[in-house]
Amino acid sequence: MSYERTIEYLYGLQQYGMKFGLDNIRTLMSVFGCPQHSFRTVHVAGTNGKGSTSAMIESVLRTAGVRTGLFTSPHLISFTERIRIDGQEIAEEEVISLAERVREAAGRIEDFSPTFFEVVTAMAFLHFRDRKVEWAVVETGLGGRLDATNVIAPEVSVITRIGLDHCDFLGRTLREIAGEKAGIVKPGVPVVSAAQDAEAAEVIARKAEETGSGLFAFGREFTAELASESLEGITFHYSGARRHRRLAVPLAGDFQAMNASLAVKTVEVVSGGFPGRQLDVRKGLAGVRWPGRLELVRDDPPVLIDAAHNPQAAAVLAENLKKIALSAYGKIILVMGAMGDKDIEGLIGPLLPLASEILFCAPAYGRAAPPERLAAAAAKAGYASIVAPGVAEAIVKAEELRHSGELIVITGSFYTIGEAKEYLGSKGVLTRLRE
Fold first, then answer.
1. Nearest to residue 310, comparing CAs of 335, 347, 340?
2. Beta strands 68-71 and 83-85: pairing type?
3. Out of 108, 323, 329, 410, which could bridge 335 as a Cys pair, Cβ 3.0 to 4.6 Å?
């Protein structure tokens, strides 16, 4: 198959939806001799920050000279973003080969219909074994307890900030969602957790106690103090098993200080797994790359994108825009598209007061909310807006409305900012496949 046909095959697997449970992935792993046990792993779950935290952990681990793997989702532009070795995206030819191997294996199993994410997870673990990865950082897709990635036996489990998201799948309360995320915790395996709301913190602490897993919580066993911030990144001071002054991270947003401190604490916990090798926290954090979070993707006119896909993330984006964007640009033109299963009022609420112009659109994805629904929610809150059918049309209109010195901010979902990056010049192949 060609690469395009391979991606079409993977896209077609979305007809099987999202199935929670580990039976399918265990079946696939057993067919291939359990490749997930051929390398050591760090498992990362959470609602916000898990992608950038995973990228930071992998970047620091790589400084020890070990062969690293990174498995994340969703992608913004190209499917190859999901599976990386030593910081490099998987080649298209390898995607073709791996997909064919998994497809053939699945076809030999009677009454077996794996989902898109199950197949992609199997592809990642096979690739890591084939390429002799020593350490892999594995991000959950959705939840944790029943997520397809939860067949690994990690050296440490990491839980980033938990919020209300994917409530139709994970539960209606923070306690229920935290229970699903904490499902990655394994007996005797250390847990590193971000600062959490009281309900989520209680669930994680109880799970750690039940499993005999040592818990390292932000604000208790380790802390971070923001030193400086701009759209180019942050610096912060870290205090944990060791102290580090003015660690630099080339990712914007004060929240990245906690994400980075999670990464530092994680590598402190696993540092004994690198005999004779030195981990360089400063170099690893300084070298991390993670797109789509407060990312200035164009200078003229200035365009900033951020995947604020739930109310918690939108509130964080709003606070950071107030601190590091409004003073530099004065006015903001907001372009926003969201998924229909989101809390629309909670998502748009923090951002509307910051915008001089508001444009709503719908990314080309079946779960996208009609832009008219977002506009109606904005009108109810007292804000006028413009509706555009798609992301590209919204960007064109934003550029027409923009005056000199103003900043265009594109946000609302990974699908929206992925389409925006493609429109602004990044190359994508069948980019609708971003689940």
1. 347
2. antiparallel
3. 410
Cα→Cα distances 426→103, 360, 400, 405, 410, Å:
29, 22, 22, 24, 15
* pLDDT attached to residue 165: 66
Say how many CA atoms lie within 13 Å of 287 toward its Cβ.
14
Q: How far apart are CA 177 and CA 162, in angstroms?
A: 8
Those residues whose C-beta lies under 8 Å from the C-beta of residue 34, and which sit 6 or more positions away, are none
Q: Note the pLDDT tens digit of each residue in 196-247.
A: 999 999 999 999 999 999 999 999 999 999 999 998 999 999 999 999 999 9
At position 147, the amino acid (one-letter code) is D
Share of the chain above pLDDT 90, in %: 80
Q: Which two tokens stand for residue 6?
A: 């391979």
Q: What confidence score (pLDDT) does residue 169 get?
A: 61
Residues 420, 410 contacting (CB under 8 angstroms): yes
pLDDT at 17 over 70: no
When the pLDDT of each residue in the chain is averaged and rounded to a whole number, the result is 93
- Give yes or no for a contact between 270 and 376, defined as CB atoms under 8 angstroms apart: no
If you search the block for the tokens 């205090």, which residue do you land on?
239
- Please give the Cα distance from 385 to 338 (Å, whole number): 15
- Whether residue 74 is preceded by a cis peptide bond, meaning omega within 30 degrees of 0, is yes
- Give the amino acid at 337: G
Please say if the pLDDT value at position 171 is more than 80. Answer: no
Query: Which domains, ranges and CATH numbers included, belong to the chain?
Result: 3-286 (3.40.1190.10), 295-423 (3.90.190.20)
**Bridge partners of residue 228, in order along the sequence:** 235
Q: Is the dihedral of CA 276, 277, 281, 283 positive or negative?
A: positive
In the chain, the N- to C-terminal Cα span, in Å, equals 22
The CA–CA distances, whole Å, from 255 to 313, 325, 421 equal: 10, 15, 23
